[in-house]
Design a protein that fits this description.
2 copies of one chain form a homodimer. By secondary structure, the first copy, chain A, is α/β, with parallel strands linked by helices. Chain A contains 11 helices and 14 strands.
């Protein structure tokens, strides 16, 4: 029944020939070819550096202005980077500001670390700076996610600059989850930067390498880098060395790889956005990432019925702090998106 | 200077042609061949199950009596298994009993999780049950490590059974770190078992797969399994799928692989144990794992001088709760062990 819809775990790993899943946010497109090319000769097996392999950190430093390999810590995906960061910079009871709607892991992650999430509402998915500034007071950190999962919205550059300024003035750490930084349709990414910023990133979305689990944190604050390494020494040690070597190969992929992916994502975005508009739904046009978050009547019943009666998986907006909405990932091919839209249409008309 | 000897990180990753390292506890012997054989054809890239790949959990369940794949969670090495376990079963302020000398990560791991380590002394590396029982009162969990890093000692089966009984009676969880379970020279391993036990294990020592980071936790308590999965969903997601596939291949290695390794370890054990005795040092004969923990005069100066003057890395016993001793890992070939012993002899005679 509908009350089984407690979190996305109910849908994770579900497969079926006739199932259309707008659920999990993972690219269906393949990683760059060269990622697999090193495997036949791979023979390493010893512990790697806790901070991460030098070649990978060196390669990353070329992507971030005025950085060097000492500024990076390679992690088991962006999830571990977030976890290590909060455990390193916060003490139990500290407050962390999150903008709504938010990625569903943020709140449990903060709570499991005995931190208090504080929320700022957004307007059409955009941060309302006045509310943000008010709510940020007394917070240890703010967590920014642009482009956002689940809204697909990006934050305005002028607002991001204001956030940099106010956080620097009040000694608040900005934790900037930029895992969708390379999937923006509207403009180049603006990376939040400064001494108070920890950037979280990953190879999962840009290079479709979700399963390998290679993420990282980047910070100019040497103390944060040092603390996260000290913590990781005891909580997981090095990130899998073979996955890191594959990630290193991905950094050498031609720029055309990302361009081609972006073209495909944009086509799908247009398809699903227009398709849902045509069904009469109210939704924001995604500017990045690969999610839409339409309003639907009785979301819990909708998600349940779409799944049970029409074999369509969607996620409940409530998991993302958006109780009037449902989330659809469009990380699936055009044909399936069309078939899924058809089924949703059938359901909504009934 | 000597005061740089704060923790093992000072030595990690150090290499040099003339350097003899008794430091890091990682096998120098290679993993089973078949681990690498799957690589040329490997093409998967999507998220795996948070709990771990089914084939690997299925294979593991065959190694544990009356278990099934639902009892296992695959983790980024034993370190993550320990971290997830303590975060899942404890609340900040809870007490956890640890026997001295202990693996150096235990205390920082507990402290970083806001838990209070409580210590029981051992007699020649063996748990003193009366003291154990007294100190266990009021603890949320006890952490057992047999065979032990850094002592190489195993706990008596009769004592392990008493620990099972008293912990069950007092509703104390036993966290049993058995990563050296397959490296015992004296008898077969006795696995602590029961509804109150969480077994921690890994592919790092048995199969020399340290760098890939595949460990796991095993428990009959479904609630603990569920909680650790829920936590891992937000803190790191699945363990690297390619590393898990390699670990699955390792489970198919012939029994002769482990037998051959054990024969080599035993030879090295005999060599270093007798060698250090011959130098007049007081130490316990290791019954498992690959460490010795001799008493030396002025350990801090000894570790520093051995490193600076003789290019020999040893670890300070103080990091393991054994301030009168130093730890030597004998995970290096016979020739190097002999050369290292010679240098230590030269130093001690001077």
């Amino acid at each position: 029944m509908e009350d089984q819809l407690k979190d996305p775990s109910i849908f994770i790993g579900l497969q079926g020939k006739n199932l259309i899943s707008f659920g999990s946010g993972q690219p269906d497109l393949a990683p760059p070819e060269q990622v697999f090319k090193i495997l036949p000769k791979y023979k390493q097996f010893k512990y790697g550096l806790i901070q991460g392999q030098e070649n990978l950190r060196e390669a990353l430093s070329k992507q971030y202005e005025k950085s060097n390999k000492a500024n990076f810590v390679i992690t088991n995906g962006a999830s571990e980077a977030l976890d290590l960061t909060f455990r390193s910079i916060c003490q139990p009871g500290d407050k962390v500001l999150v903008h709504k709607p938010y990625y569903y892991s943020y709140v449990p992650l903060l709570e499991k670390n005995h931190l208090k999430p504080v929320f700022t509402e957004t307007i059409n998915g955009k941060i309302d700076f006045n509310d943000f500034e008010e709510k940020a007071k007394g917070c240890k950190a703010v967590l920014i996610n642009s482009p956002s999962n689940p809204t697909g919205r990006i934050q305005e550059i002028s607002i991001l600059k204001k956030i940099e300024k106010t956080c620097a003035e009040q000694d608040i750490t900005i934790v900037s989850d930029e895992v969708y930084k390379d999937l923006i349709y509207e403009r180049k990414n603006y990376m939040l930067h400064g001494d108070h910023v920890v950037t979280i990133n990953s190879f999962s979305k840009t290079f479709a390498m979700c399963g390998f689990r290679v993420g990282y944190l980047y910070s100019k604050d040497k103390n944060i880098v040092k603390k996260t390494i000290a913590l990781k020494t005891h909580t997981s040690m090095n990130t899998s060395i073979i996955a890191q070597e594959m990630a290193f190969e991905a950094t050498k992929a031609p720029h055309s790889y990302q361009q081609e992916q972006l073209t495909i994502w944009k086509k799908r975005r247009d398809l699903i956005y227009q398709g849902l508009l045509d069904l009469g739904l109210d939704l924001w046009n995604p500017e990045g990432a690969f999610y839409v978050l339409p309003k639907v009547p009785n979301p819990r019943k909708t998600v349940w019925d779409l799944f049970k009666k029409h074999k369509v998986i969607t996620y409940l907006g409530d998991w993302f702090g958006a109780p009037e909405r449902i989330r659809l990932s469009y990380a699936l091919d055009q044909e399936k998106i069309e078939e899924g839209l058809k089924r949703i249409g059938t359901y909504l008309k009934a």
